[in-house]
Amino acid sequence: MSEDTIRLVTIGRILRRRWRLLAVLTVVGALVGYGTSVLFPPRYTASASVLLPGQWEERELLTQVDIATSSSVVDRAAATLGWRGVSGGELRDRVSATAADGNIITISGTAETPERAQQLSDRVAQQFVRFAAQIAGGSTDAGAATDPEALRQKVAETNRRITDLANAADPGRTVEGVQARTTLEKLRTSLEEAMRKLDQADPATNKATMVVMGPAARPAGEAPPTRMQFIVAGALLFFLLAVIGHLTAARTSRRLRTEPEIAAALRSALLGTVDVPGERLAHRPEGRGPRARIRRLLGLDIRWDTPTPQTSGDEAGRRIRYRRVCARLRDQLPDPRRLLVVVPDGDEIALRAAGQLVAEAESDPSPSSSSTGYPMLRVVGVSVSQPMVPDRDNESGALVVLSAGSWTAGELAGIAEACADAEHEVVGIVLADTVRARPTRSADRPRDAATPALAVGADATGGAR
User: Could you tell me the residue ranges of all domains in the chain?
Assistant: First the structure.
């Protein structure tokens, strides 16, 4: 197909002529999305924030994010939660952490219920703070004394012991006593100086004192993707696939649309193009069986890729086109002849055009007059899958009438071969085009040319034999 398949007007044509099919496929996609959501139970996500005081570089924050989701922290949280059948490895997939501005790490936990999601995020945040404090204190043992306050208590106790020893020593009576008291005072001074330096440089005091900023808020809604998102995504996916499928089918279609291609496939010359009013095509061929009813219900029995019919002139102008085709046939043939009008089965437009040609041929002066007369035409329908043309009897030629964009080169070549097998020479081709007739007043409307009732696949005779 031409580049017309990617234009917006083509998309609009699909929506206008295939809206029933698109609506059905959209509903089917929504049902598929609903079924998919059943396979994925709803999940809820809660988040807890941990504040990191002090100055932190970006790489240090990323390190703390990795620690918050490490197996050491998550396993401890799993042990404190005590959920049956849920191990630390399973919780590791449900926990995530991100670093935000202001030295804040957000820890998120996902679970089947809002309560569990809240508990998971709170426990992981608590265990993260404890584990970070242990790392800052130089030990990963949970039983180790890593609290700076405990260290200060030890120092205070040592100072008391030093005082007791100093009081027990001989208060200045002997040289040994004076030396012992001096040594103990030096030891006390060294301990106090070491504690001051420890308070100034202790990373546990400056950085590792993390604070959990309150409990996690209980989630009020499901975490994405929700059931509604599944339904909307399924409906949208099926709708887009249907539109893309129509465009792909049109792009890869092998139906012939141009006059030179059709003339080359039938190995004959084009005699002209005739117009068929579009409103007359409102009658659709009545198929039988459930498949035909489904096709009519979904609108599949009407082509969508045909261009929008152009507005034509009046009835008299359309009849002039038919008369010109008949005149070209008359001028091309040496003497009045009987011709078969071959119409592919299923081509409703061509069938009506053939009926109009027969009516115009009947209205021509008889061969006995000064004019040589139009050929006598008889319409036959030919199946494109198994083309079969009646053998040569009174007719001595075939006129092929078809609509553009309906048949492939192979199908038209099959019709040409069927005509040759029946010893009928294809004397010409007539293309039928759909147009929109201009509304006319009922009083001024000319009498419509009689169109014989033609059945596709059955013979219809026009003119005296």
Answer: 3-40+225-251, 44-137, 148-206, 259-461
Q: Are strands 95-100 and 104-111 parallel, antiparallel or unpaired?
A: antiparallel
pTM (two decimals):
0.60
Q: Read off the pLDDT of residues 227-241 as tens digits, 9 standing for 90 and up.
A: 999 999 999 999 999
Q: Yes or no: say if 359 and 451 are a contact pair by the CB < 8 Å rule.
A: yes
Tokens (6 digits) for 258: 């141009």
- CATH number of the domain located at residue range(s) 44-137 in this protein: 3.30.70
Overall average pLDDT of the 11-39 stretch: 91
Do 66 and 103 contact (CB within 8 A), yes or no? no
Asked whether 429 and 262 are in contact (CB, 8 A), the reply is yes
- For the stretch 375-405, pLDDT in tens is 888 899 999 888 998 887 777 789 999 998 8
DSSP 8-state class, residue 390: P
Q: How many residues does the chain have?
A: 465
Q: Give yes or no for a contact between 46 and 218, defined as CB atoms under 8 angstroms apart.
A: yes
User: Which residue from 192, 197, 50, 71 is spatially nearest to 133, judged by alpha carbons?
Assistant: 50
User: pLDDT at residue 3 above 90?
Assistant: no
Task: List, in sequence order, every beta strand (DSSP E) within 297-425.
Answer: 310-311, 338-344, 376-382, 398-403
